[in-house]
Automatic annotation (TrEMBL):
Zn(2+) 2 binds at D91, E128, H395. Residues 223-325 form the Peptidase M20 dimerisation domain. Coiled coil: none annotated. Belongs to the peptidase M20 family. This is M20 family metallo-hydrolase.
Amino acid sequence: MKINEKRLLNNLRALREFTDTPGMGVTRFSYGAQDNKAREYILKRAEGVGCSISVDPLRNIRIGLPQNIPGRKTVMAGSHVDTVRNGGWLDGIYGVCGALEAMETLSEGYSDGIPLFNYEMVIFAEEEGSNFGSTMTGSKFISGKYGEEDLDSLRREDGKSLRQVLENLPQRYEDRYLSGNLSDIAHTRWDFSKIKTMLELHIEQGPILDREGLSLGIVESIFGMRVIEVTLTGVGNHAGATPMSERYDAMCAAAESVLEAESVVRGDSDRRTVVTVGRMEVYPNCSNVIPERVVFTLEIRDKDQSKIDGFMETVKEKIRDIARKRGVGCLMYEHSKSAPLRLSDRLISSMKKAALEKSLSFKVMDSGAVHDACMVAEHADTGMIFVPSINGRSHVPQEDTGERELLSGAQFLLDTVISEIEN
Ligand code: HGY
Ligand code: MN
Ligand code: MN
């Protein structure tokens, strides 16, 4: 079966328009108006081919092939629709459009015979963590990593909890398919005994495939990550009248901490571990006031948990020393985490074999980015397919992939889905 290339590209181009920052990348946070419009667009296409649709209280969506037979094991493909702020047009949505294209092609293709396994596509909610700071939030609930208490502990910058946001959502197109409720959140957990395979098509978001001129990545392992939130509290004071020798400057303490974290991890022997301080809030954030308080996130990622933990503990100790030396208060708490994991060897070897048969240029590789597939991989055979990111850019408006690679990646996903539902 062949994907409909025009339909796939039209869907991708239509969906990129659902953004809060037109002309400055795609900004589409979960639970927002643009997220609702993008989901409505996708659901209307699924309705058009007679799919079954169900939405859980976290707003994860499962969409079934009309020919599915209830109760049979299922092969799944999907990703996320939400983005970072001023992000790219492909992160997440490309995997959702690939899964949707497979859905539409299969619904046409299996007009008579029905395969051995069902096919479903999935849209995971709040993968980027742009609202609540925790990546893979929706998929952490379906895998049981998150439960009742996380509905209240996960909070947005405006202080609203995940539960409050979900309870006060304005009307959304998907509401008609909502099942289950927040008071019984354990019910969002998937019955993984019914899932044969999970596949996620995604852009690489790094430089390897593009630099080596390869069209496909078969993902072997996905990095783990730990995120802490650091609050440094000094003494706010007048920027002009306070002598340098009498300052307890939270900003200088934060700046020294960030550079110290960078130099610790730069010293990594195998040069794989990464550390990032991406979000920083300054109080009171006025040019003529010595900052009293600085809050920042610090995340460390690697494919080896002991390295993540080793570097994180070293960095925390360094930050404590800096705070002590500068007479600044220091509070740190673990914000979120996910373990490194290896994807299904069965799928890696079957996808390698298929890529060789199709003479596709490919590489078996790791993913420094985390994906919802991580949350399914512990429970069902899970595989990830990458396509190149031009100049290795992602999470920025410059994020892009060539049309040829977008199409061959989606065709490879369909071929893999067919091989999984027919054998
Ligand atoms: O942060 C990540 O790796 C993913 O893009 N959410
Ligand atoms: Mn993503
Ligand atoms: Mn992302």
